[in-house]
């Protein structure tokens, strides 16, 4: 199908037809160089005429425009693309693209510079809508989901609008921006405060400094203050490496693909500098304990900040810091001589060999303390072969790793989020890696 035919089909298709999204992806992908201007102008025209019907489709359609492309004819998108701002499915991402290229100096002035009044009015109307939404309790699960989605889209649009208004630089919008400072959304308050600060407003600076007390937005608030040369406004207790690490983990946990909300509690568990696989120099590492209160009970866990930002999917409160570091090191490690295969996917003869090794090596211990041994996977670790199995030891569930004919036991724990076989084997690999890179302060024992 030719591009002209695809565009014609786009105009004829129903707004929910996924083929329309594919036409936009094609146009966005053809937007480089001298000939790219026509493709992007058509992209803008189609979006303004009939935009994608969902935020998800819009993100897919616009994604090629946000990839590093030095020859992208981005100026061909504007001002026509801005005519689609009344459509909530695309409004935020349109502004994000305009803001991105204005900040990078590719679009001067900001494409919305002559639409400041309309942007400010849109900001005000979305703010009022969210305030009203907060006063209407949902009547059922469907209403709750609809309100959640509306609020999520509204907050995203306000954040993008605040950024655009700050980049345009017109101080006449400050009153509209201030109207959102009372909304119960910490990320939005931080972004609005940053916009006000960039517009020279002292109250924006004060709110940004206050937001550094909130771990989930601490990193963003500090970044904005430091970017504007206002580091002295950051309270001294939040300038420490540990406070910064607390903020990084809280922000990671609040991401949509993690918990989606900030933890109610977060505290430093351990801090040390050590060699880490993949790094030439010692790395500063922080372990932090976090907790969420839910209707089903408290969820607790431990996260790391340093060589990576990550958190465990299991409760390991009673595991030593050394072994927690090992769990994250095993998770993080990538090497061509480290891999694993599921026992169920092994050829029959290899399964038989694993069964024999388990029987011959563990038979004495099975009688004494192990039961219900069930192989799960076989790992290859720098020429070594590890057999990983679930088992019970003295009636307690856990994971046993057969490494060089020596058994290593990792207890699952008595929690709703036990240490699983995946995490146990990550811990096993990590212990061996960290012991290689760091002289152990004392002999570590299996949990």
Outline the structure in words:
There is one protein chain. The strands form 2 sheets. Strands 5-6-7-8-9 form a 5-stranded antiparallel β-sheet, with helices on both faces. A hairpin with an 8-residue loop joins strand 1 and strand 2. The protein has 3 domains: 3-242, no CATH class; 243-311; 338-417. Mean pLDDT is 90; it is low at 443-447. It contains 15 helices and 9 strands. The longest helix has 28 residues, at 141-168. The protein has 447 residues and is an alpha+beta fold.
Question: Could you give a quick summary of the protein structure above?
Answer:
The chain is 48% helix and 17% strand. It is of the alpha+beta class and 447 residues long. 37% of the residues are buried.
The stretches of 5 or more residues where confidence is low (pLDDT under 50) are 443-447
Round the mean pLDDT to the nearest integer and report it: 90
The description of the largest β-sheet is:
5 strands, antiparallel
Proportion of β residues?
A: 15-25%
What's the overall geometry?
A: globular
Q: How many individual β-strands? A: 9
Which strand order does the major sheet show? 5-6-7-8-9
Total number of domains: 3
Distance between the termini: 62 Å
Using only C-alpha atoms, the radius of gyration works out to 27 Å
- Which structural class best describes the helix and strand composition? alpha+beta
Helix content: 40-55%
The SSE string, one letter per element, is HHHHHHHHHHHHEEEEHEHEEEEH
Q: With helices defined by DSSP (H or I, 4 residues minimum), what is the helix count?
A: 15
